[in-house]
Specification:
Distance between the termini: 112 Å
Largest sheet: 5 strands, parallel
Low-confidence stretches: 235-239
Structural class: alpha/beta
Helix content: 55-70%
Order of helices and strands: HHHHEHEHEHHEHHEHHHHHHHHHHHHH
Shape: globular
Number of helices: 23
Radius of gyration: 30 Å
Strand content: 5-15%
C-alpha cells in the first residue's frame, strides 16, 4: 500500500496559481493604479498599508494585489471568503491578528466577495479597523456604494480595477503558454478566440489554455487552430464567443428585432444568447438601452419594464429570472416606437459641445441674497403654476440670442402623439403672444 501511494503523482497546481505574479511589475493591466505615481504604486513604495476596497470584474488581480501587499509590507496575510465564512470565521481571524500583533507583526485581512457579507458581518470588522489591529482589504465585483456598509466604506479607499484589455491579455497568453505548453503552437485565430472568450478575465484565460492543452495532447493536434478551440471548449464557446463577432452579431439581431416590432424574432435571439452563455444582466442592460433609444416617450412604461426585469432577475436568479427578461423583451417589441428623445439628446449634446458658454438669463437666476436681488437676479420670473394651465405663455427659458432649436420632434405614435399635440398647442399660444407683442410695438 505504501508503494502505491508513493507511485501517485502529486496533484498538479493549476496554471492560474502557477502564473500568479510574485512582484508588482508582473501584474497585468491596472496601469491607472500601479503605474508610476499612481495610488497603489505609491502605497507600495511608501510601505504604508491602508484599508481599501478593490472593485472590479473577476480575474483582474484583486486577490493577487492583496497578497503582494502582505509580502511588500512584511505583514501576516489572512484571507476569508464571504461565500464560505461567517461571524465565527471573522472572530478566528481577529484572534490570529491579535496573536500576530503580540509577536510584533501587523495583519492584512483580505475578504473576497465582501458584498456577500450582511450588515452585521461587515460591522464586525469596524472596531478592529479603527484600532489599527488589521488593514482591511475587501474585494468585490459589485458596486461598493450599494453593497458595502457606509461605515466600513468611509474607513477604506475604493480602487476600481478594470477588465484586462486585448493587449494585456495577449501578453498574458504568451507568458502562460510558455509556462504551460511551450512546445504547443497556437495559430493566430486560436489565440484570438481564447482571448476573446476569456473576456478580460486572466483566471479564465489560464483555465482555457489548460483545457485546450489537454485536448490537444489527447488528440495529438498541432498546431492548435481556431476550429479546434471551438471544438475543445464548452458548448457556450461553440455558440458564440463573448469577445467575437458572433456575439455582437446576435446582440445586434436582438436589438433590431425589438426595434422592428417582431416579438417572435426578439424572443428567439434572446433565447439564443441565453443558451449560448451570455450574461443575463448584460442582456437586461441592453433592454434598458432599447427602451430609451427606440421607444422613449412613445411608451415610458418600457423603461420601467426593463428596469423591473433586471431587478427581478437579481432577486430570483436563473432560470426563473430569465422569464422576466423574456417578458420585457416581448413588451418592448410590441411597444410603440420613437427615437425622438434619443435624436433630440444627441442634437443638443452636439450643439453644446461646439457652442460657447452662454450666460443664464437674469430672470432665470437664483437670488438667495440681497445683493443678487439688487442685481436683478430672478426679476420678472413668472411662476408657471400661477399662470392659466400652469403655462407662462411667451416666456423664454433659453439663453439670450439662442432661437428655439426644436430638437425634440415627437412622433404621432403612442403617448408621444399626445405630447406632440400638447406642444403644438403651447407653441401656438406662444406664437399668438409674440404676434400681440409685435402689434403693440
Amino acid at each position: 500500500m505504501a508503494d502505491l501511494f508513493e507511485s501517485l503523482e502529486p496533484p498538479r497546481v493549476p496554471l492560474a496559481e502557477r502564473m500568479r505574479p510574485k512582484m508588482l511589475d508582473e501584474v497585468a493591466g491596472q496601469a491607472h493604479l500601479l503605474g508610476p505615481g499612481k495610488p497603489l504604486r505609491l502605497a507600495f513604495e511608501a510601505r504604508r498599508p491602508h484599508s481599501m476596497i478593490l472593485w472590479g470584474p473577476p480575474g483582474v488581480g484583486k486577490t493577487t494585489l492583496a497578497r503582494l501587499m502582505a509580502e511588500g509590507f512584511d505583514a501576516e496575510f489572512i484571507a476569508l471568503s464571504a461565500v464560505f465564512s461567517g461571524v465565527k470565521e471573522i472572530r478566528e481571524a481577529i484572534q490570529q491578528a491579535q496573536v500576530a500583533k503580540a509577536r510584533g507583526r501587523h495583519t492584512i485581512l483580505f475578504v473576497d466577495e465582501v458584498h456577500r457579507f450582511n450588515k452585521a458581518q461587515q460591522d464586525a470588522f469596524l472596531p478592529y479597523v479603527e484600532q489599527g489591529l488589521v488593514t482591511f482589504i475587501g474585494a468585490t465585483t459589485e458596486n461598493p456604494s450599494f453593497e458595502v456598509n457606509s461605515a466600513l466604506l468611509s474607513r477604506a479607499a475604493v480602487y476600481v480595477l478594470e477588465a484586462l484589455d486585448a493587449e494585456a491579455m495577449a501578453a498574458l497568453f504568451e507568458r502562460a503558454r510558455a509556462v504551460a505548453c511551450p512546445a504547443l503552437v497556437f495559430e493566430d485565430d486560436a489565440r484570438e478566440r481564447l482571448i476573446g472568450f476569456a473576456d478580460g478575465d486572466a483566471r479564465r484565460l489560464m483555465n482555457l489554455i489548460e483545457q485546450v492543452q489537454v485536448a490537444a495532447e489527447t488528440a495529438s493536434v498541432a498546431p492548435v487552430t481556431g476550429a479546434f478551440v471551438e471544438q475543445a471548449l464548452s458548448r457556450s464557446l461553440r455558440r458564440f464567443d463573448k469577445g467575437g463577432e458572433a456575439f455582437y452579431d446576435q446582440i445586434s439581431a436582438l436589438h433590431k428585432s425589438v426595434r422592428g416590432s417582431d416579438p417572435d424574432a426578439s424572443l428567439y435571439w434572446l433565447c439564443r444568447m441565453l443558451d449560448g452563455g451570455a450574461d443575463p444582466l448584460y442582456l437586461g442592460r441592453r433592454l434598458i438601452r432599447m427602451a430609451v433609444e427606440d421607444i422613449g416617450l412613445a411608451d415610458p412604461r418600457a423603461l420601467e419594464m426593463a428596469l423591473n426585469a433586471i431587478a427581478t432577475y437579481e432577486r430570483l436568479g436563473s432560470p426563473e429570472g430569465e422569464l422576466a427578461l423574456a417578458q420585457a423583451t416581448i413588451f418592448l417589441a410590441c411597444a410603440a416606437k420613437s427615437n425622438a428623445a434619443y435624436t433630440a439628446y444627441n442634437a443638443a449634446r452636439a450643439f453644446v459641445a461646439k457652442d460657447g458658454s452662454r450666460p443664464v438669463p437674469l430672470h432665470l437666476r437664483n437670488a438667495p441674497t440681497r445683493l443678487m436681488k439688487s442685481l436683478d437676479y430672478g426679476k420678472a420670473y413668472r411662476y408657471a403654476h400661477d399662470e392659466p394651465d400652469a403655462y407662462a405663455v411667451g416666456e423664454n427659458y433659453l439663453p439670450e440670442g439662442l432661437d428655439a432649436p426644436n430638437w425634440y420632434q415627437p412622433t404621432p405614435r403612442g403617448l408621444e402623439g399626445k405630447i406632440a399635440e400638447k406642444l403644438a398647442r403651447l407653441r401656438a399660444l406662444d406664437a399668438a403672444a409674440a404676434a400681440r407683442k409685435s402689434d403693440n410695438q
